[in-house]
TrEMBL record, chain A:
EC numbers on record: 7.1.1.9
Cofactor(s) the protein needs: Cu cation
Entry protein name: Cytochrome c oxidase subunit 2
Segment forming the signal sequence: none
Catalysed reactions, as listed in the record: 4 Fe(II)-[cytochrome c] + O2 + 8 H(+)(in) = 4 Fe(III)-[cytochrome c] + 2 H2O + 4 H(+)(out)
PROSITE patterns cross-referenced by the UniProt entry: COX2_CUA (PS50857), COX2_TM (PS50999)
Its biological purpose: Subunits I and II form the functional core of the enzyme complex. Electrons originating in cytochrome c are transferred via heme a and Cu(A) to the binuclear center formed by heme a3 and Cu(B).
Principal location listed in the UniProt entry: membrane
Superkingdom: Bacteria
Organism: Flavobacterium silvisoli
Membrane-spanning intervals of the chain: 47-67, 88-112, 134-156
Region: Disordered, residue numbers: 364-393
From TrEMBL, chain B:
PANTHER family from the UniProt entry: CYTOCHROME C OXIDASE SUBUNIT 1
A GO biological process held by the record: aerobic respiration
InterPro entries per the UniProt record, alphabetical: Cyt_c_oxase-like_su1_dom (IPR023616), Cyt_c_oxase-like_su1_sf (IPR036927), Cyt_C_Oxase_1 (IPR000883), Cyt_c_Oxase_su1_BS (IPR023615)
Gene3D superfamilies assigned to the protein according to its UniProt record, in alphabetical order: Cytochrome c oxidase-like, subunit I domain (1.20.210.10)
Entry GO CC: membrane
Transmembrane spans: 40-58, 91-120, 132-155, 186-212, 224-252, 294-310, 322-344, 350-375, 387-409, 421-447, 459-485, 505-528
Residue span(s) of domain Cytochrome oxidase subunit I profile: 23-592
Cellular compartment(s): Membrane
Principal subcellular localization: membrane
Membrane topology: Multi-pass membrane protein
Name this protein carries in UniProt: Cytochrome c oxidase subunit I
Keyword check for Glycosyltransferase: no
Amino acid sequence: MTTLLVLIVVVLLAVALWQLTKIFDLTQVGGNVNNTQIANDNDNKVNGYLMFGFLGFIYLTTIYCLLNYSKFPLIGDSASAHGPQIDNLMVITLVLIFFVQTVTQALLHYFAFKYRGKEGQKALYFADNNRLEFIWSIIPAIVLAGLILYGLYAWTNIMFVSEKDKEDAIVIELYAQQFKWEARYSGADDVLGKANVRYIDGANNLGVDLSDPNAQDDFTSSELHIPKGKRVIFKMRSQDVLHSAYMPHFRAQMNCVPGMVTQFSFIPTMTTAEMREKPAMVEKVARINAIRAKKSEALVASGQPALDPYTFDYLLLCNKICGASHYNMQMKVVVDTPEEYQAWLKENSPKTIVQAVKTAAAEAKAAEKPATSKDTTSAKGTDSTVVAQAETK
Amino acid sequence: MSAEAHNHDHGHDAHEHHHKDTFITKYIFSIDHKMISKQYLITGIIMGVIGVGMSMLFRMQLAWPEESFKIFSFFLGERMAPGGVMNNETYLALVTIHGTIMVFFVLTAGLSGTFSNLLIPLQIGARDMASGFLNMVSYWLFFLSSVVMVISLFVESGPASAGWTIYPPLSALPQAISGSGTGMTLWLVSMAIFIASSLLGSLNYIVTVINLRTKGMSMTRLPLTIWAFFITAIIGVISFPVLLSAALMLIMDRSFGTSFFLSDIYIAGEVLHYQGGSPVLFEHLFWFLGHPEVYIVLLPALGITSEIIATNSRKPIFGYRAMIMSIIAIAFLSTIVWGHHMFISGMNPFLGSVFTFTTLLIAIPSAVKAFNYITTLWKGNLQLNPAMLFSIGLVSTFITGGLTGLILGDSTLDINVHDTYFVVAHFHLVMGISALYGMFAGIYHWFPRMFGRMLNKNLGYVHFWVTAVCAYGVFFPMHFIGMAGLPRRYYTNTNFPLFDELQNVNVIITTFALVGGAFQLVFLYNFFSSIFYGKRTVQNPWKSNTLEWTAPIEHIHGNWPGEIPEVHRWPYDYSKPGHDEDFVPQNVPMKEGEEVLHH
């Protein structure tokens, strides 16, 4: 039905706008018989006015978007310590862009209107002026210098973690594969064990080197839990193709590259619960739920189950094309208070990878008596990707 | 050719000085640059229809992700869109091929191939390209690569679907996505042929511009079109071979077991043997072409616009030398900024700082160009022909799209908008729409020179205004959904309630896209009907100064009967004081006591 409606709208628009051609034709009436297909004064007039109108269109589009869509952009609600730096720079740059855009589009379209051709009008022979060229090279240069300096300052702050901060940080591995995420925690020893895809075997699906002492207490989770107020260093790996770990609310993103370990780090500043209570977020969730309720009505009417109401959660999305189900590769991120985080660790840390492998082996043994397993630890990679806290760049 | 006293109203006599043309040598394996340019244009337009058509289909999918459309199974077949529902791999295939076709086949070959071929010999005063034969080979390689690309759409396992940037390992492993099987092989073969074609073309353009300029045509009297084509050809020669080598290495990895780009991969239940390569290397190689490619697409459009704006403003282009310098500066900078596509690829963050610096520098020559265009309009006598409208439109989208480059070029800000719809909006405006406008402007302006007939101006006006409104309607709102964090290349956003409120915007965008797409039919109709039924052109319809308008309307081998005109002045003497007419063609000698009034 929607299809049909849309098609009808498109056809009607086409017909309506086809009439425009006729209008352009009619503007010729009264003038000399002009069939040269070269713009005459009338064309210049009509199109000159349209140019002016188009400036209005650009402004109206801008205003419409600002009024209706300015609630969308992720600005001002960051949940990480470095977030405000990015947001500030973004706001400064956006203001600059809107200013330049408004002025230059006005000049361009106004001149196109003002100096539309007229019989007998003479153009000014104005070939060059070094002073003007100098002005509009030097002004952008100065403005850019400011942007570049601010940008590089923030970039350095975000990307380079000092040794002191490293000592104090939690290291978590983000592991990507088609089409899901897993997080590996280092356990009590605070050091992640070595890993390589060549160790992957059954329950050891992240390819952890089980012979590495540091790996003994590593455990995994399909939900990412991080504590508020503490620096988290993410070590990222991928087992198959490129993925990108994108956590928009934390202004964080880094590609996961098979064959190497990449890194991104930030300090969460707002727990999931706190974020849910922010007025802007409450509004956003209400808007989304209104949309979902409406959709659900239609679904229920057609005999399908209704959509679940939405509650806010931080998300980790895949943001590098990674295959057919790229569009649904996500993981829930939970920012806990330090106490909640400790409790979560306590609950989950016994579920180590080593334990999982043992359990799987025992189950296999129970299933068929002549067992063969237990050679997982002897698997040798020719070159293991080392994931260790001490790693320096 | 000797300067015989012929009266050449049309070129029929001139033909007799040459070998007889058969149908095949005249229309198919022609070595005449004018015919080759038409071949490029028509092939480009056909590829454009395919590329734009694909975008209509995937835009519909994005706006109404749960609907089924008969039109999907009609165009895509039951295999790719069973029951009218587009499947997720088909979606990725469509965006991949859309990008490939638009960037390379339409805006590189279709734009540069058409206008470099048409204008370089005609505007510099040469009989033809330096090597007509290479020129012919170049076109036919392009044709062949187009055919291979189109064939790849029909292979059983589907066309390439790893994105137009074909990052390995996704593009290297059929296990990762089925389009990386035969489809990807054909994609790589097609691109290798395409690159060969592009290199032959570029070398030809460079040699022709350097060696075959007519008497008096010094480099500083070249029209800005030629400068743009010349510099474009140079960056093409520098950067395309790098993509060729990347493609060859990828072929080696795919078919011969090497590990240039692959390492430590576990997929489909087994560990692959690859060891020691890096996908980041591929990204470097790809973007070493990929970024200059943006300017390979854009510079010819800017050159065309410079020429058309000056002619239709009846004013000299403002700051001719500054325009040349900024073309050269942009070209130079374009080869050292590729890393801004890779800020978060895992390369050393220090490199990110360097690339932020070089990238933002490009804003300076770009600003110079924009302001020079605006100043050229100031106090002009603007003839608002369709070509002029598209040129002004280009300046507008170039500014709008270029400004957001300040955000994406800044590594800090890129962290959160990288690979979102913000990027899609940015590059479609600044290189897609702008270059397309440049191409349309060129077609409206030089159609009389190519086909001896005029395009219908009223259809041209409708075409422009609807396209202009729709282009902003599509890409302006897109910035906002990008800033909301919506990733690109998602087949549907329904799995993220977070993005539910963006769905309305997607419907608006798609509506504009469909209307804009539909109105390209106006152009197609105008184009093809005017070739046969258009109003016959006069010698110099736009009262332009450049040499191509001094050649006879009827195409002849060698372009000019008799001697090639000699050049006495720069190409922008419009409305020069002391002349009755508001234009003084380049071949008009300086009057006694006439001064050069420009630098």
